[in-house]
Automatic annotation (TrEMBL):
It comes from the Eukaryota. GO terms for molecular function: nucleic acid binding. It comes from Choiromyces venosus 120613-1. Residues 2-70 form the DDE-1 domain. This is DDE-1 domain-containing protein.
Amino acid sequence: MRITTFHIINEDGTDKRKIWVVGQGERPHYFCQQQVNPQNLPVIYKFNNKAWLLTGLWYEFLCYFNEEMRISQ
């Protein structure tokens, strides 16, 4: 099992955003065993074969973060 986590937090810890988790499968075996739906987790779960934060996911994250900042102002 390989995962990558991406944490969004400011320096003093007063502003925390949802953690992004990148796994290797849409419904990994370890989720199926526990009957967990990744969409119901308190994180944003994405997946690809290597569990890496690739360019497409990085762009998706930037769009998400930009929208979060726009809403908070």
